[in-house]
């Protein structure tokens, strides 16, 4: 009868056998599969980032699903529409014709005419037309918007409305910044111009670096970031001002810390409260085409600098005025002082104790208009 065979297995052999069993049972992805997973993750992240920085399509007025058209509009030579609003005396009887250019986060309703006394308008015979800048209110967006294109929009508006060979331009805040481009590109069409608290570009050429840097550093840290993004990486402006990780522009977010004591008082004025009635209309076509593109153009790279401009009225047939509050917390007074030092033909009016919203103070706009038209009276 055959007997059983007993095999003795060493402890080392047993441990080796156990390790092999464990290794053979563990799950391992093939190296090619790992590369594919990493590639898919990378593509997914890039795709998400691309979508995050892409602004939504604008809701163009009069298009299917877009806001309605309620204002009179002209059709520009490139096919865009420009909405406008006429105020003051009739165009045919007017002695002075003024184009009012609104500021940032505003529209045609924010005309200087809102703050003029009816008596002065009638006394002087003033006609004023204000318009929605591209992407604001009911004016079509302009994806190719530049400083020059906006100046030419103003010229075309004047031509189609029959304002004559010369007219006045009054620009407030960001509209004041645009008035520099009017002085650059269509000075021959001007009877006079007023820049009211015009926004500055901290990257203008011709300014001492220490002056520009000091003025820039006076801004809140989040505004320095927002302006820097608009200047250096404009394709990120929409994302920066809509992401939730860091605060974007103080002006866009309505942060009151950027307002001077006078500004805070004016915030509660009856005229300021009227804006609530049409505030939604300002951004109705989308924040990118109104606010963000405004930032990209205004704080981007300019092909000229204000300090390089020539006097459009060498024979004193008209005048240019610049108004600035010395307590403006949005627009540093130091850069305005440098501009008028380099351009002595500008009539400079610095207002003690005034902030950025001084045009809304009682009687202030009457004074601005009278000074502008004084040379023609």
Automatic annotation (TrEMBL):
Residues 101-357 form the AB hydrolase-1 domain. InterPro entries: AB_hydrolase_1, AB_hydrolase_fold. SUPFAM superfamilies: alpha/beta-Hydrolases. Residues 1-25 are annotated as: Disordered. It holds the Pfam family Abhydrolase_1. This is AB hydrolase-1 domain-containing protein. It comes from Cannabis sativa (Hemp).
């Amino acid at each position: 009868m055959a007997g059983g065979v007993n095999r003795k297995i060493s402890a080392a052999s047993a441990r080796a056998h156990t390790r092999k069993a464990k290794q053979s049972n563990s799950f391992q992805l093939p190296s090619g599969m790992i590369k594919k997973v990493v590639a898919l993750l990378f593509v997914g992240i890039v795709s998400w980032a691309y979508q995050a920085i892409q602004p939504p399509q604008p809701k163009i007025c009069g298009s299917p699903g877009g806001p309605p058209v309620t204002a009179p509009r002209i059709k520009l030579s490139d096919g865009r529409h420009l909405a406008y609003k006429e105020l003051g005396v009739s165009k045919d009887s007017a002695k002075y014709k003024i184009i009012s250019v609104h500021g940032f986060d505003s529209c045609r309703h924010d005309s200087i005419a809102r703050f003029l006394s009816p008596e002065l308008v009638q006394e002087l015979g003033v006609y004023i037309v204000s318009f929605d800048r591209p992407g604001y209110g009911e004016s079509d967006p302009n994806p190719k918007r530049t400083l020059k294109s906006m100046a030419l929009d103003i010229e075309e508006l004047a031509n189609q409305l029959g304002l004559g060979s010369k007219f006045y331009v009054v620009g407030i805040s960001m509209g004041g910044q645009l008035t520099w481009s009017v002085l650059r590109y269509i000075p021959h069409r001007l009877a006079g111009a007023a820049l009211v608290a015009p926004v500055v570009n901290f990257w203008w050429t011709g300014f001492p670096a220490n002056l520009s840097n000091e003025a820039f550093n006076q801004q809140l840290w989040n505004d320095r970031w927002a302006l820097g993004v608009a200047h250096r990486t404009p394709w990120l402006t929409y994302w920066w001002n809509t992401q939730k990780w860091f605060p974007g522009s103080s002006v866009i977010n309505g942060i009151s810390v950027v307002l001077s004591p006078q500004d805070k008082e004016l915030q509660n004025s009856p005229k300021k409260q009227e804006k609530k009635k049409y505030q939604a209309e300002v951004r109705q076509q989308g924040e990118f085409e109104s606010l963000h593109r405004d930032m990209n153009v205004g704080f981007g790279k300019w092909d000229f600098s204000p300090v390089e401009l020539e006097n459009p009225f060498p024979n004193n047939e008209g005048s240019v005025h610049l108004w600035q509050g010395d307590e403006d917390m949005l627009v540093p007074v130091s850069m305005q002082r440098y501009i008028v030092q380099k351009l002595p033909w500008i009539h400079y009016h610095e207002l003690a104790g005034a902030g950025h919203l001084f045009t809304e103070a009682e009687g202030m706009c009457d004074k601005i208009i009278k000074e502008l038209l004084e040379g023609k009276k």
